[in-house]
Amino acid sequence: MDFLTVPLLSVFVLPTLSAYSSRLNLLFFYMSWTTLVMSLSDVRIEMVGTLMARLIFWIIPSCIFFLFDSLAPNTAANLKEGGEAGLPSGSRRHRASAYIFQVPGMCLVNFVLSFLLQLAWEKSMIYFRFRPAVQVTIAVPMPWDIANHLFWGFLLREILSYSVHRFVLHSNQPGLNWIADWHDNWFHSLRSPLPLTAHYDHPVPYILHNFLPMYIPVHFFQFHMVTHLIYIVIISIEETFTYSGYSILPISMLQGAASRVNGHLSSDGRKYFGRIGLADLVTGTGEFLGGLVGGRGVEDDRRRRRR
Ligand SMILES: [Zn+2]
Questions:
Q1: The model's pTM
Q2: 3-state secondary structure of 293
Q3: Where are the domains of the chain?
Q4: Dist. CA 179 → ligand 1 center (Å)
Q5: What is the pLDDT of residues 15-58, one digit of tens each?
Q6: pLDDT-derived band at 10, boundaries 50, 70, 90
Q7: Span from the CA of 79 to the centroid of ligand 1 (angstroms)
Q8: Which residue from 142, 160, 237, 255 has the least number of CB within 10 angstroms?
């Protein structure tokens, strides 16, 4: 395992060490990357890379946030957008019950499920001699190619995620009622977002709404492993902060995303269905710039629900 983790860790850590010159950084990165590609199978590199990115940027920080909220509810409530309603226990005076710890447990079960699906998909691609979703080659893509793939990848993720969330998970169609009920009984049982709950839902809506919109763009655009790692790191950071429930977030874009998740829960699933807000802005299912833009689709949804 050491043999595996040292080059992988250097791929993550070396670019952040400012003590080295950028040329030296690049050389170390390329040497580590070449060693990794030559010594391990493509699937192993993809799966271990995904797991490490998720551990470092989502699981560990989210668990720290969850424990902080549970052990120091008074301080945490002052930092939460929803005040004490945003605490796992829902109150400053009460400690989180054993029940609430089932929520992060279920989030981790869902994550393991998505991880196994990704592994099974890549194994079956190799078995049937198709091109795998993630390309592991010694040649590293140019920054422009990485940016181009990330742009289209995040756009497709937004369209897929929005469509599934709005038209399947909040559907009134008789054939889709059972999926909508699962999403309603699980995810919408949360009063406000809690750390880790980006992955909290019944496993079926979770796979449809979280895993597939995240992984289909990777396969469709045939991401290089380096692009895939950056994609997973950005998604993990987004999920960690957006669902932390804190009102003070490092980037205003994350602040907006966190407010939209809060808005989706507090409106009982009548607005804000997308991840980055773009689809809500275009289709009018959200309120932007203080309600000056959008909001038409929300009213349509309300009318449809009343009927
Ligand atoms: Zn919903």
A1: 0.85
A2: strand
A3: 41-306
A4: 11
A5: 555 555 677 777 877 888 888 888 888 999 999 999 999 999 99
A6: low
A7: 24
A8: 142
